[in-house]
Design goal:
The protein is α/β, with parallel strands linked by helices. The chain is 33% helix and 19% strand. The protein has two domains: 13-28 and 74-116 and 168-246, TPP-binding domain (Rossmann fold); 37-72 and 119-162, 2-Layer Sandwich (SIR2/SIRT2 'Small Domain'), CATH 3.30.1600.10. It contains ten helices and eleven strands. The model has no long low-confidence stretch (mean pLDDT 94). It binds adenosine-5-diphosphoribose (APR).
Length: 255
């Protein structure tokens, strides 16, 4: 079914998983748009622990450009619709995003789990220093190092607080998602995935857990995703147009 018939959220808990497609209409390229390449480098080669060991300056250049770019764009009507529906549902709502651009929070979303980390946090590549807010850019060969490690007589580079290819998600995030789904089980429970190709795990598998717990599942994507068949309903549409309509919101600015 491809109509924008509003989703029935009466008394329901709603878990929404978002991906790069939601930010596409703000002007940020999706992973797939760029064929997985950045300046001739495979994204896996700049977004991986091995890539950082091989060429940390290249990795910092990649993320510095993304920090700069994310600051120049604005949340779109899709982000705003999600913030609006959260105001209505309060703690019956959870947003799980694979995006690292901070646009959901800038649109007003508060119950957000950033499972792939944040562009605007930095952490140590060696010790368990608490990740900290960081909007700085590093285009020079001189890269930031960890003061905590220096105090222990070691030199360690700082790195973006991003979950790279080959790295595990934060177990506390997975526990929080699991706990929300288990609270939702048995009652009206809606799971939506929006703007995500369904190619990257474990995010792509959340629909399976939601279904096993009785959720009604909906995919909103510009194209079929790798896991479209797992959803009860697929709406093929742009998220900035579809989300306000699916949530029955009239007041969301469509820009
Ligand atoms: N509205 C809805 N969907 C859209 C739109 C739009 N305006 N524009 C693009 N899309 C869809 C594309 O059709 C594609 O299926 O969004 C999807 C984006 O897919 P990917 O680029 O693979 O992004 P995502 O699924 O978020 O990638 C997952 O992979 O790059 C790594 O860790 C990174 O978090 C990222 C993860």
């Amino acid at each position: 079914m491809n109509s924008l018939q509003p989703v029935d959220l009466e008394g329901a808990r709603l878990l929404v998983l978002t991906g790069a497609g939601v930010s596409a209409e703000s002007g940020l390229a999706t992973f797939r748009d760029s064929n997985g390449l950045w300046e001739q480098h495979r994204v896996e080669d700049v977004a991986s622990p091995d890539g950082f060991v091989r060429d940390p300056a290249l990795v910092w250049k990649f993320y510095s450009l993304r920090r700069e770019q994310a600051k120049t764009v604005e949340p779109n009507a899709g982000h705003r619709a999600l913030a609006e529906v959260e105001k209505r549902l309060e703690d019956r709502f959870l947003l799980v995003t694979q995006n690292v651009d901070g646009l959901h929070q800038r649109a007003g979303s508060e119950r957000v789990i950033e499972i792939h980390g944040s562009l605007f946090r930095t952490k140590c590549s060696s010790c368990d220093l608490q990740p900290f807010d960081d909007h700085a850019t590093y285009f020079e060969r001189t890269l930031p190092t960890c003061d905590r490690c220096a105090g222990r007589g070691r030199e360690a580079l700082l790195r973006p607080d991003i979950v790279w290819f080959g790295e595990m998600l934060d177990p506390a995030h997975m526990q929080a998602i699991d706990a929300f789904m288990r609270r939702a089980a048995g009652g009206p429970f809606v799971f939506m995935a929006v703007g995500t190709s369904g190619a990257v795990w474990p995010a792509a598998g959340l629909v399976n857990l939601a279904r096993s717990l009785g959720a009604s599942t909906l995919l909103v994507n510009a194209e079929p995703a790798d896991n479209t068949a797992r959803f009860h309903r697929f709406v093929q549409a742009r998220s900035a147009e579809a989300l306000p309509a699916l949530f029955g919101l009239k007041g969301v600015d469509p820009r």
